[in-house]
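G., the chain you wanted modeled:
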Amino acid sequence: LCKYLMVASGRASVFILRARAQTVIK
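Predicted structure as tokens:
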């Protein structure tokens, strides 16, 4: 369960970073 939460949080953080990068580029 812990590993799953860590992976989920990691993917979420990466998704947020990508979204921010796209907004900055645009």
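The chain has a mean pLDDT of 90.

Shout if anything looks off.
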